[in-house]
What we know:
- By secondary structure, this protein is an all-alpha fold.
- It has eleven helices and two strands.
- It has helices at residues 24-32, 41-54, 59-64, 66-72, 78-81, 86-93, 102-116, 122-127, 152-164, 171-180, 196-204; strands spanning 8-9, 15-16.
- A two-stranded antiparallel ribbon has the order 1-2.
- A hairpin with a 5-residue loop joins strand 1 and strand 2.
Amino acid sequence: MSDPGLPAPGPDGQLRCPWAMSAPEYLAYHDGEWGRPVRDDRGIFERLSLEAFQAGLSWLTILRKRENFRAAFAGFDPAVVAEFGPADVTRLLGDAGIIRNRAKITAVIGNARAALAVPGGLAALVWSYAADPADASSAGPATMAEIPAWTPASKALARELRGYGFSFTGPVTAYATFQACGVIDDHLRDCVRRGASRARAASRGPGV
């Protein structure tokens, strides 16, 4: 029996992180988005919000509801979401297409307001925790067991976000956001996507 923590062959025979093989949605997300640098405030806010909604649930559930979340939260534009009021909370609680959790819904609205107050913007804050490429290991984790749930950097970001008034953004959520937004490349060492997302983004210039 193969080790579930090791890279697994995809439909094209190339090795990928094993979690990508469990559902078509995971494969598409793994190959096209996870680990690819996201440098705009709206993109960072969306992923931070979705990671908060994922707490206690399967990420697959979030992926399958993602377009519903985008429609419900105005494309995760922080300036628009920050203006949501009680009527919007009621609307969201009645939306079967999203996760109807009052605490998480109100947290996202509060986080939008907090994001607007971050000096320099949310994306700049998150990316300030990126490791210096000269200091970062180029090899990457060999197995899933080598990937942490959180790091000192994600703990520090969570603390800073809390200082700005964010909630549902603890160290684990912060680290998952690092992974999703390419702040750290946690594709396994032998995964076909290891380093590919960063290289493609670099070739296209900033803002991708």
